[in-house]
């Protein structure tokens, strides 16, 4: 994700005592048979996490499926903080490594934050 978090958010946006503990939730939204949710591990105290995790989603109707990605900051004593999100039509994804922009709660594109993701279709 690079240093974008530092540029897009003040240090008070997340936990003010330490760098964020980021994780991502990955959803497939579409027909009920395709609906799925997975979660990465939490990378502690890191403004530039690297998850290097792979998820597989078998789809029956990929034309109607959306890939939703949500980045959150884990917080043991309060509700986890929202970091950013994106929603991509699966039918428009292409094989390979892609730079995916994230959006805030209002749907505005974050200036510097992106996820580097690899897509593969079997």
TrEMBL record:
Any GO molecular function: phosphatidylinositol-4,5-bisphosphate phospholipase C activity
Gene3D superfamilies: C2 domain
UniProt keywords, alphabetically: Cell membrane, Hydrolase, Lipid degradation, Lipid metabolism, Membrane, Transducer
Catalytic activity: a 1,2-diacyl-sn-glycero-3-phospho-(1D-myo-inositol-4,5-bisphosphate) + H2O = 1D-myo-inositol 1,4,5-trisphosphate + a 1,2-diacyl-sn-glycerol + H(+)
Domain C2, residue spans: 1-104
Record-listed E.C. numbers: 3.1.4.11
Location (main, coarse): membrane
Gene Ontology biological process terms in this record: lipid catabolic process; response to stress; signal transduction
Cofactor: Ca(2+)
Topology with respect to the bilayer: Peripheral membrane protein
Subcellular location: Cell membrane
A Gene Ontology cellular-component term: plasma membrane
Stated name of the protein: phosphoinositide phospholipase C
Source organism (scientific name): Ilex paraguariensis
């Amino acid at each position: 994700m690079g240093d974008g978090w530092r540029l897009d958010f003040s240090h008070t946006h997340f936990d003010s005592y330490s760098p964020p503990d980021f994780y991502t939730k990955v959803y497939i939204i579409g027909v009920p048979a395709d609906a799925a949710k997975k979660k990465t591990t939490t990378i502690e105290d890191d403004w530039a996490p690297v998850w290097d995790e792979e998820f597989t989603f078998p789809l029956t109707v990929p034309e109607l499926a959306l890939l939703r990605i949500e980045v959150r900051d884990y917080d043991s004593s309060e509700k986890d903080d929202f970091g950013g999100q994106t929603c991509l039509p699966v039918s428009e994804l292409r094989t390979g490594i892609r730079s995916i922009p994230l959006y805030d709660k209002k749907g505005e594109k974050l200036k510097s934050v992106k996820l580097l993701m690899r897509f593969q279709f079997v």
